[in-house]
Design goal:
alpha/beta
Length: about 260
């Protein structure tokens, strides 16, 4: 098994890359902050995801988080110390990384043990198949942060749970526990935590044994079926609201309820 660790400037933050038996495995590791990703980590995740294609033996990518978290998404505390322009730039990098993984020409299996929140949920939805443990939790509490969701971001949820459930996610900030996420179609498989790694590798090997031509064709064909919106996000609409976003971030850092005063 080849193991490559990409260490980052953030304390104890690293992205671990492994190859074994036709599988590439990427592990997001930042346990002290629920595997939350900084802008630098998003960039590195995109690069290492593309790195999987350099080895033609890699037939499937497994994407997971370390410990009892997938990822809490972007590191909200990072936004408290940067300008709105830099925050917007960070979200653009995030979306580009998620799209990179979504468009890889090999199957991507998300292994969800614990929370997949916010951009972490979007990252999970970029995977072709999601396998969750009984500790999986999925939600997108952007309404507390003043983050504005564009149609490409929303479409990943709409395609799986429908328009009303998507709006409910944002309107209420609700979180689906494992069984509810499975029933809603956010998880394809639900297994006990103790079986998650073994089941995921077995599933990865099963998929890797299929025709590469068939796998690539179905990825392309499904994408063509789903891409019905006339214009998906092209970078022209912002991710952050100039009034609500700073207040939402401050409230998050200060561990209080945000006070949105816009009329």
């Amino acid at each position: 098994m080849q193991v490559r660790t990409m260490r980052l400037e953030e304390e104890d933050a690293k992205i671990i890359y492994q190859e074994t038996a036709g599988l590439a495995i990427i592990t997001i590791h930042r346990p002290q902050l629920k595997n939350a990703l900084t802008q630098n980590m998003w960039d590195q995740l995109a690069k290492i995801s593309m790195h999987t294609l350099k080895n033609p033996k890699n037939k499937v990518l497994l994407l997971r988080g370390s410990g009892e978290n997938f990822t809490a998404g972007s590191d909200i505390k990072e936004f408290n110390s940067i300008s709105l322009e830099k925050a917007e730039e960070a979200f653009v990098h995030m979306e580009k990384t998620i799209s990179t993984i979504e468009n890889l020409p090999i199957p991507v299996i998300g292994v969800i043990n614990g929370p997949a929140m916010g951009a972490g949920l979007e990252l999970a939805l970029a995977c072709d198949i999601r396998i969750g443990s009984d500790k999986a939790k999925m939600g997108i509490p952007v309404g507390k942060l003043g983050i504005t969701i564009n149609n490409k971001f929303a479409k990943r949820l709409v395609d799986l749970v429908g328009p009303s459930a998507t709006k409910d996610f944002v309107f209420t900030g609700r979180m689906y526990k494992a069984e509810e996420a499975y029933k809603a179609g956010l998880l394809n498989y639900l297994v006990a935590e103790r079986d998650l790694t073994r089941f995921s590798i077995r599933m990865g090997k099963l998929v890797a044994g299929m025709s590469p031509a068939s796998l690539l064709a179905i990825k392309k064909s499904v994408k063509e079926c789903l891409d019905s919106a006339p214009v998906l996000w092209d970078g022209s609409t912002p991710f952050v609201d100039p009034i609500d976003f700073p207040e939402g971030v401050r409230a998050f850092v200060e561990k209080r309820q945000p006070k949105f005063t816009r009329k």
